[in-house]
Design goal:
The complex is a heterodimer. Chain A is α/β, with parallel strands linked by helices. Helices cover about 60% and strands about 10% of the residues of chain A. Chain A folds into 2 domains: about 5-85, Methyltransferase, Methionine Synthase (B12-binding Domains), Chain A, domain 1, CATH 1.10.1240; about 95-220, Rossmann fold, CATH 3.40.50.280. Chain B is built from 15 helices and 17 strands. The chains are: A alpha/beta, B alpha/beta. The interface of A and B includes residues 63, 67, 109 and 160 of A.
């Protein structure tokens, strides 16, 4: 079997959300001498792209997305040490600190977003729900985040997104991180009003937005 | 039925597990298992199910789901487990009516069976839409309460204190909640129906303390109103919810167990939502000690409930509980179109035809995607209540072909719905009469179209 065959097999194992098959195929690829980074870039990530599209088209739902993500994460636990051993860096597209703002206990939308970020190649620190504004800022500092992403479902908790942006400003950190907001109660107008860098109406579109923001961040840092 | 303290204890004594493991090792696989076990399948076309074997299978699947997956308490990280016998006993002992209101407005909401065409369902109108102004708030409530067909109201939201929106969990939030209730009672009083019940949650209240404060006798909420207690995430029973159960149960108030299973979330697609929504009604009685259920399934991306698979699932869950439990139900329709638009009315008619013929009571719709401040237009809600009462004279089999005619009129618009009107754009601020001729024309045209499809909607 040529490389194309093994990549197709890797891709299909992710699409099938079959963790055992994913791990077995990763082992097979490594045993055949395929570079760990290529296993990810040419095998696993294309599979995750299909999973993302199926999720967007409602062919699959959150449980299937989670299964695929868990399978991917298990594979990464095997592959990342290999990449480090060979002196390479992880294939991460960017670092994202994510959470639902203070006072808001809703998690599903945020959890979907975490999975889509992870399966799109981002490193994600999920702070959970009801997150204090300093937790966002401290974690962003600690992990040198590219993006702070905040969710709010309720009209009454929207203000928590503004609080974080204002606090970043007061601490002189506003330009250090890109800030994106979303969630049921948010709108593009709200995002503009509070000075966020971006807003997305759905988790899937948030991934596209993140890519744009990380690109912009890299551009402004250059 | 097992007693309430025993229910609370289950949150402390069940198996210890993480939330992720609860979902991935219990709820998600068990849901898939019970769906397969009972052969539950949506054919991607039907809107109103008429197959009673499928209906009863959905109920059995919901019982199995609760017995095998349990509910999850995040504060203790434990699974609240119940035996099949405990669940079935609770179902058999569930309330079949809930009495709301005071004086001549005191009435009973009853659990309905599908295809019952000779009863009058409970009529509830309104929604927690944000209002910018206290006068608009009071006028909105007064207008809704003044419609004689209305049995209860949901009141809008007013969050500001001295011009600033109250921050969640702040002392201002407690004051905003009290203000909301006092203004709502004032609006109801002005309608001449002082005993009319309020049966929604007060949107300003994010925490039990705010709701408890509003229950102080001078402020206006009373046990004969309805108090919503919701499941947060899928199958999650949090301590805040159980605190409310403890309080409202102790004062003998009507509890509306409330659930929002998400299409596209952990519940998956149409089949999963139908089973999970039914399971919530069972849990609402057993765990929340509800006297009625507030069923509000929602699309996780579109934030509305008027897609074809969702209407199928919502109606089916009503029929499952209506045939097997008799627990009174209302269903909160989140609709795409804005107030006063044809899209909004079509969506409402389709939803109402499906759920009312399946055993639900009548609840007017809430504009969701096209929602904007002050967009609760009371005459929309009267029209929708009239549609609901007209639907109650039909069977599911009679409703299905009308739903099939209605769905193409709005289905393609759900992703980008028509924008609607505000209270101020429809009414004369002094007389509260409709002054927007286009608004009235649209409603009249839809009434005629519905008659043409076989649903005569008399003006109340």
């Amino acid at each position: 079997m040529g490389d194309d065959g093994i990549f197709e097999e890797l891709k299909q194992s992710v699409i099938d959300q079959d963790e055992e098959k994913v791990l077995a195929t990763v082992d097979k690829a490594l045993a055949a001498g395929v570079d760990a980074r290529k296993v990810i870039d040419d095998g696993l990530l294309p599979g995750l792209d299909v999973i993302g599209e199926q999720f967007e088209c409602e062919e699959i739902f959150l449980p299937e997305l989670m299964q695929a993500a868990l399978a991917f994460q298990s594979a990464m636990a095997v592959l990342e040490p290999k990449i480090r051993e060979s002196g390479g860096e992880g294939p991460k597209k960017g670092r994202i600190v994510l959470g639902t703002v203070k006072g808001d206990l809703h998690s599903i939308g945020k959890n979907i977003l975490r999975l889509l970020f992870e399966t799109s190649g981002y490193e994600v620190w999920d702070l959970g729900i009801d997150v204090d504004l300093f937790k966002f800022i401290d974690k962003a500092k600690e992990v040198d985040a590219d993006i702070i992403a905040m969710s709010a479902l309720l009209t009454t908790t929207l203000i928590g997104q503004k609080d974080v942006i204002d606090a970043l400003g007061e601490q002189g950190l506003r330009d250090k991180y890109r800030v994106m907001v979303g969630g049921g109660a948010t709108t593009e107008e709200w995002a503009q009003k509070i000075g966020a860098d971006g807003w997305a109406p759905s988790a899937y579109e948030a991934v596209t937005l993140a890519a744009r923001l990380v690109g912009a961040q890299a551009g402004s840092a250059a | 039925m097992i007693d309430l303290i025993e229910v609370f204890d289950r949150a402390e004594t069940g198996p210890l597990t993480s939330e992720t493991d609860y979902y991935m090792k219990r709820y998600v696989p068990k849901l898939a298992e019970v769906i397969a076990r009972y052969g539950i399948k949506w054919d991607k076309q039907t809107i109103v199910n008429t197959d009673d074997e499928l209906t009863d299978n959905v109920f059995s699947a919901a019982v199995d789901l609760l017995a095998e997956a349990g509910a999850y308490c995040p504060e203790t990280n434990r699974v609240m487990e119940f035996t099949r016998d405990e669940i079935l006993t609770a179902c058999a002992q569930a309330p079949t009516s809930a009495t709301f209101g005071e004086g001549r407005e005191r009435k009973a909401m009853r659990g309905r069976r599908p295809d019952t065409t000779d009863d009058r369902p409970w009529v509830h109108v309104g929604g927690g839409i944000y209002t910018t102004d206290e006068q608009v708030f009071v006028d909105t409530v007064e207008k809704m309460a003044s419609f004689s067909i209305v049995d209860s109201v949901s009141v809008p939201s007013i969050l500001h204190i001295r011009g600033k929106d109250a921050r969640v969990r702040s002392p201002q939030e407690v004051l905003a909640t009290i203000k909301t209730v006092r203004l709502a009672r004032e609006g109801i009083l002005r309608s001449g129906r002082v005993g009319l019940p309020i049966i929604n949650g007060i949107s300003a209240a994010s925490q039990p303390a705010s709701m408890f404060a509003a229950t102080y006798p001078d402020f206006g909420l009373r046990p004969s109103d309805g108090f919503l207690i919701d499941f947060l995430s899928e199958m999650v029973v949090g301590y805040e919810a159980l605190q409310k159960v403890a309080f409202y149960n102790t004062i003998g108030a009507n509890i509306g167990s409330t659930s929002t299973p998400l299409f596209g979330g952990y519940a998956g697609g149409a089949e999963g939502v139908a089973v999970t929504a039914t399971c919530y009604m069972i849990m609402g009685n057993l765990i929340m000690r509800g006297t009625y259920h507030y069923n509000a399934p929602l699309h996780s991306k579109l934030h509305l409930s008027s897609t074809k698979p969702l209407i199928w699932a919502i109606a089916l869950s009503n029929a499952a509980v209506g045939r097997n439990m008799g627990y009174p139900m209302v269903n909160l329709p989140y609709l795409g179109g804005g107030s006063g638009t044809k899209q909004y009315h079509y969506e409402m008619a389709c939803y109402m035809l499906a759920v009312v013929t399946s055993g639900g009571n009548v609840f007017s719709g809430h504009p969701a995607m096209a929602v904007q401040p002050d967009s609760l237009v009371p005459d929309d809600h009267r029209f929708h209540a009239e549609i609901g009462l007209a639907a109650a004279r039909l069977t599911r089999a009679e409703a299905e072909p009308i739903c099939q005619k209605l769905f193409p009129l709005f289905g393609d618009k759900l992703k980008e719905p028509d924008k609607g009107l505000t209270f101020q754009e429809v009414y004369d601020p002094r007389t509260k009469r409709i002054v927007n001729a286009d608004y009235q024309r649209v409603m009249d045209e839809v009434r005629e179209e519905l008659a043409g499809m076989g649903l005569e909607v008399p003006v109340s």
